[in-house]
C-alpha cells in the first residue's frame, strides 16, 4: 500500500494535493488588522473563490487529486467522536487565549452547538463578539480593549496550506509558526494526521512536531531530491529549528543533506519559496534580489557529523555550484524572476512571480499577472499553465504557497 504522504522531490508528477478554499476568513477583518494578520489588502471574496476554483480545476485537469483542509479537518474530528471534538476545541480555545473562564465556556457552548463542519468553518472564519448572546463580567474581559470586534480572530492565511506543515519523504513536519496570526493553523494538520482515517496509523513519520518554541514554516522547506532538502533561514524559519529537523532526518530517514540558504528577513520575501523554487531536474526560478555581488548568497550545506546528533557545516556562497554538487548535475539553469529587470523583477516577485508550483518536471502552475516571468519560463522550455490571480495575490502567496503536496510520483 502506498503511503498517504509520499514526496521525494519538488517536481515529480503531483498526484494528491491539499488546498483550502478561501472563505469568510479572508474578508472578516478591518484595515487596521491587516498588518497583524499578514495581509496587504482585503480580497474580494467571490472573485478570490473563483480564482481558487480555477486553480483547483487546473490541478484536477492535470491529473491531481485535490483534497481540502477544511473537509479533512471536520472528517478527522468526526472520526475521533465527541471526545476528540471536545479536546480539539479545548486546545483551540486555549491557543486562542481562553484556557478557562466565562468567555471560554460561552465560546465552547456556541461552537459545540454547531455541526462539526460548521464549527471548523466558524473557527477558521473567526468569532465576533456580537455573535454570542453573552456579556462577560470577568476582569479579563472588562479590562481588555472594548471596541475590538473579535473573540476569536479569523485565520485568513489558511489558504496558504504550504506553510503550517510540509511533506518530506513518507512523513512531514508539523510546524510551530512564527506569528500569532498563523500559530493555531497547524493544529488542524496535527488533528488530521492523528485521526483522519486516510492518515492515522499509516506509519507516517512526523519529523518535527508543533510543540516547539523554535520556528519553521513549509514555504522554507524544499525537497530537492530523495536525499537533499533546501531550507530557508528566513523571517519565518530559524537556524536552530533547521538544525533540529536535520538531526531528526539524519537519524530516522534517508535524507542526508540539508542546504540552509539565508534570505533577507522581510515581508515580501518571507519564505525561501517566495524567491527560489525548483521547476525541473536542472532548472530553478530565483529572484535576483536575493543574490549579492557576483550572484553570491550565504549557504550552509549540513551533513551528519561523526558523533551522535553532530552536524557538519560547509559554508559557501556560490548557490549554483552548491546545487550542482548536491544534485550531481553538470549544469543548471537559474531563471531570474522578471528577467532580471530591476522594476519588473521587484514587482513580479511581490506578486509571487518566483513562487511556481511544479506539477511535473518542467511543467509549472504560475499566476497569470506575472507575464514577463511566465514568458521567460516558456523561453527556457518550460510548460507554463497560468491561473487567475488578482485577488488571491493580495495575501502575498502564489501557487506553491497555496498547495501542500501529499503525494508525488518518484522521478
Ligand atoms: N510559502 C509562502 O510564501 N506562503 C505565503 C504566506 C503569506 C502569508 N500572508 C504570510 O505572511 O504568512
From TrEMBL:
Gene3D superfamilies: Arginine deiminase, L-arginine/glycine Amidinotransferase, Chain A
A Pfam family that the UniProt record links to this protein: ADI
Coiled coil: none
Keyword Iron: no
Pathway of action: Amino-acid degradation; L-arginine degradation via ADI pathway; carbamoyl phosphate from L-arginine: step 1/2
Family label: Belongs to the arginine deiminase family.
Record protein name field: Arginine deiminase
The species this protein was found in: Secundilactobacillus malefermentans
